[in-house]
Specification:
- The structure holds two protein chains of two kinds.
- By secondary structure, chain A is an alpha+beta fold.
- Chain A has two domains: about 60 residues, no CATH class; about 45 residues.
- A three-stranded antiparallel sheet of chain A has the order 3-4-5.
- The longest helix of chain A is centred in the last third of the chain and has 13 residues.
- The radius of gyration of chain A is 18 Å and the shape is elongated.
- The termini of chain A are far apart.
- Chain B is α/β, with parallel strands linked by helices.
- Chain B has two domains: about 130 residues, no CATH class; about 170 residues, Vaccinia Virus protein VP39 (Rossmann fold, 3-Layer(aba) Sandwich), CATH 3.40.50.
- Chain B is about 50% helix and about 15% strand.
- Chain B contains 14 helices and nine strands.
- A seven-stranded mixed sheet of chain B has the order 5-4-3-6-7-9-8, with helices on both faces. In chain B, strands 1-2 form a two-stranded antiparallel sheet.
- Chain B is globular and about 55 Å long.
- Chain B starts with 5 loop residues before the first helix and ends with a strand.
- The interface between A and B is medium-sized, with 18 and 26 residues.
């Protein structure tokens, strides 16, 4: 049986839930704390530090490939620059954003290394 | 008058609120008029003859400008001052998009057709940015929730869905705690491929082309007809597969420069509300309720 524990997404601040398994608690009791990977409802990944009581001690953002390695180019129109920059910085909040990123890449509005 | 049913605007409260109420809507319209005049003036200054427009895009611009009283005899463009207040926050990106797509390139459109000015990739990226813009999302969700009441229907067919419409329909269903079975229909192969990516995650089906459609409680035809080479065929097919139809179509009576923008992005025609209604009747639909004539023709058919 798994328990759930709450954490705030370090990328977007969304209230999120993470599963805490008995194995995780056992490991935390042995080592003092363990790390686990979780995702918020908007899909941002976070590394959680969980103690033996199942409490989240810290939640750190995971740098994902689509984010910091991409940047908005001068070719991008002014109207969508701010939106593209936000998506690249905070991650896609919705699937429409993922599609926009794909199309923006094809149009040369963003480049990724 | 740019809107024929103010009560409807108040009914779609969520939209009204994000626009800043009636004052916000008036400010929005002032900006529309200002941008339209700026576009018409730029086209004339770039050498376009308003009596013999060089192509469809400029012809549409002049037609709308005439309808809105901005373009007068002898190709004179009315002096429309820029509103003093900034546009409603949620529409800022939309007006900037009008600048990017229409105003900044107007001289190029006078000289050559849109595909020679903007690449297909750019048009596709602009389309995605437009349909997922906060203002447009708020509009669709408001009409689906308050007018069409789509959450009441279990089997919904989204005709010519595009990439954002299905997400908005499902969001409205979820907002009302309803479980809607949605089929998103498309004819554009690229859009179909995009829809397939979304479908698995959101739990809706995709039908590409007119074959394989089933039977549905309601068909949603939202701003599809101006993209269609044969709008009558779209409405006839919807009639064949659905018991009711919610038709939402931006029409030329209330059109602003956004119409020119969608024409640049690939739309093929503009319709009046009477034409939209006549086509629906010709396709065998019976008008159950007309919510508004313009700027968006909104009606429920049986």
């Amino acid at each position: 049986m798994s328990l759930t524990t709450r954490f705030k997404c370090p990328t977007c601040g969304a209230d999120s839930l993470a599963a805490v398994t008995p194995e995780l608690l056992r490991e935390a009791a042995e080592k003092g704390a363990v790390r686990a990977l979780a995702r918020c409802p908007r899909g941002h990944a976070a590394v959680l530090t969980v103690d033996q009581y199942g409490l989240i001690r810290s939640a750190l953002p995971v740098r994902e490939q689509a984010g910091p390695d991409c940047e908005v180019t001068d070719k991008a129109p002014i109207s969508v620059r701010a939106r593209l920059a936000t998506i690249l910085e905070k991650g896609a909040a919705a699937d429409a954003d993922v599609l926009l990123l794909e199309k923006a890449k094809a149009a040369g509005w963003i480049i990724c290394l | 008058m740019l809107i024929d049913n103010w009560g409807l605007f108040l009914l779609t409260r969520e939209l009204s609120e994000v626009l800043g109420g009636v004052r916000g809507l008036k400010l929005f319209m002032q900006y529309e008029q200002y941008k339209l005049a700026a576009a018409a003036r730029a086209a004339v200054e770039c050498g376009a003859d308003c009596r013999r427009p060089p192509n469809d895009v400029i012809a549409l611009l002049f037609d709308i400008a005439r309808r809105r009283g901005v373009l007068r005899e002898g190709c004179q463009v009315a002096d429309v001052p820029e509103p003093k207040k900034p546009p409603p926050q949620i529409t800022a990106e939309y007006f900037q998009m009008i600048d990017d797509i229409v105003l900044d390139k107007i001289c190029e459109y006078v000289a050559k057709p849109p595909p020679d000015v903007m690449s297909g990739e750019e048009a596709s990226a602009y389309y995605q940015a437009l349909v997922s813009a906060p203002f447009y999302v708020a509009f669709r969700r408001a009409i689906y929730s308050k007018l069409a009441k789509l959450y009441k229907y279990s089997a919904i067919l989204d005709v010519g869905a595009g990439t954002q419409d299905p997400l908005d329909i499902l969001a409205v269903c979820e907002m009302h705690g309803a479980r809607c079975e949605l089929t998103a229909h498309e004819v554009d192969q690229k859009l179909c491929a995009d829809l397939e990516k979304l479908a698995a995650k959101y739990g809706f089906s995709v039908v590409c082309g007119w074959e394989r459609l089933g039977r549905y409680d309601i068909a949603v035809v939202q701003n599809v007809l101006h993209w269609a080479t044969d709008p009558l065929q779209v409405l006839t097919a919807a009639r064949r597969h659905a018991r009711r139809m919610f038709l939402s179509q931006g029409v030329v009576e209330g059109a602003g420069v956004a119409f020119v923008m969608t024409r640049i992005l690939g739309a093929v025609r503009s319709l009046s509300w009477k034409e939209a209604e006549a086509l629906a009747k010709q396709a065998g639909w019976r008008l159950a309720r007309r919510y508004a004539k313009y700027p968006d023709y909104l009606a429920l058919y049986r």
